[in-house]
């Protein structure tokens, strides 16, 4: 048992912290308020190699482990989850899925530009009537011999506008239900793709979220990932890893709010002393610290299992469920510690609280995580 | 041309400084160590020069004087973009011993540009660059805020009272740099961090030196006095306090 990070891991953690504080913090409130996509921040994120940080260097990635990814995600999410979610979707869903299940031709054409950050990716699974129940895909990828013809609508798509490469989950054989689903790589500029308006969200407002409509979109057969009908398994396996990213994001949101609460409690005075000297506040901070430490350990355990090539779906579901719910609790308390100041944008914690809410919903709600966890426990 | 950047391993600038053993030992427990900010900016500018003048700058070496515990800081310099590193295996005691050890390294290898920060954020000695110049009999320019290659020479700018002085200088020379030499210290990228593991880090044993200073103890700065609030209407009292108590007017 060893809780010590390697020198590289510490360096990555510090690099992510420096990046977030130097490149993102100065305009995060304005970008959130005006829902401005973090173009400059993403450009720098790419330069630093965070978008393909876990990809094999032979495909242009950084070759880092999942533990390093957790550390970087936490640091960036402390400051700006709209940037962290771009990093999470690209690394955990699009890039990991392509690297693990794509063939060499797909990797050369699509993975390399994604791993080097020349292109951004998006993962199109959710639909107006298929969220938690991902088996009920209504988007159809009709087999037309040498190509698929895609029709349907995808909802809540992170990076929908900024991405160049989509991985679309769609039904090819409705009678086979989830065994008839395929995962298909689609260039965003393919004729027949249109985007809905930018979603006006409660939090992570500067990440670009749209619905995506497919109208007779013709995609070559060679863009299918894996065997015919592999799409549902592909999506579930990919989401197992995605949960580590979102769990780490939730962890960062919580620890970012906590650090601000600690700092504020040492500065703000009430009844003749700093409020950190009042037990009501000190105990809140103690509870927050314990929860964050638990969440961090769950994230790192899941990441470690993944790095050891051991099963990690159960651990990642636990990390995602716990960290998302914990982030909601911790950020709510951080606002409370700040009192009235916590309710205004300038102090950041109200934004972090709004961001925390989304982590309980996307990439599998907390309730879906409990389904995964309970089914694993009760399986035998 | 070959560049040598001298880097100090210093406590993070937000560290709360504490002393042990009757104020004779710095308490390093829990301290995060970083590259001295001035040295890090010098390194950043060296890398910028190499990128801008690919043919002209052959190699960037960083050198540090310290025990094995300083190696993470040296590896960070390699991750940022230095090509190789030297660690002189000595816990440095004063500016002279640092300058002497550095001069021995420079004598062995032919560096053209030697950069060091104008001061270190721990002891603020501001002496090493000048001493190094004297020991090597190299020209040095202090308070350098800009450096670039200009034909066969280097063009430097330094801050002077009321403006800037522009200097042309031939190699070898010692540039003692201040903030402004680079806009921001460079954040290492993933590729750099990965490559840092395999870049050469040579450990060199120190030459023996005499110490000309004798360390006695540390002392804390005076605690800040409590803030006094004066009624905005009571200007007379404000002037009185500034004159008789603070003695600033």
Question: Which features characterize this protein?
Answer:
heterodimer, A: Butyryl-Coa Dehydrogenase, subunit A, domain 1, Butyryl-CoA Dehydrogenase, subunit A, domain 2, Butyryl-CoA Dehydrogenase, subunit A, domain 3, 3 domains, 4-stranded antiparallel β-sheet, 11 helices, B: alpha/beta, 9-stranded mixed β-sheet, 6 helices, 27% helix, globular
Name given to the CATH architecture of chain B: 3-Layer(aba) Sandwich
Helix content of chain B: 25-40%
Output mean pLDDT of chain B.
Answer: 92
Query: What is the CA-based Rg of chain A, rounded?
Result: 21 Å
Largest interface: A-B, 19 and 14 residues
Report strand % of chain A: 5-15%
The largest sheet of chain B is: 9 strands, mixed
Could you say which overall geometry of chain B the principal axes of the C-alpha atoms support? globular
Number of strands of chain A: 9
- Helix percentage of chain A: 40-55%
Q: What is the number of domains of chain A?
A: 3
N-to-C SSE string of chain B, H for helix and E for strand: EEEEEHEHEHEHEEEEHEH
Strand composition percent of chain B: 25-35%
* The level-1 CATH class of chain B: Alpha Beta
User: What would the CATH topology of the largest domain in chain A be?
Assistant: Butyryl-CoA Dehydrogenase, subunit A, domain 3
- Spatial separation of the terminal alpha carbons of chain B: 54 Å
The span between the termini of chain A is 29 Å
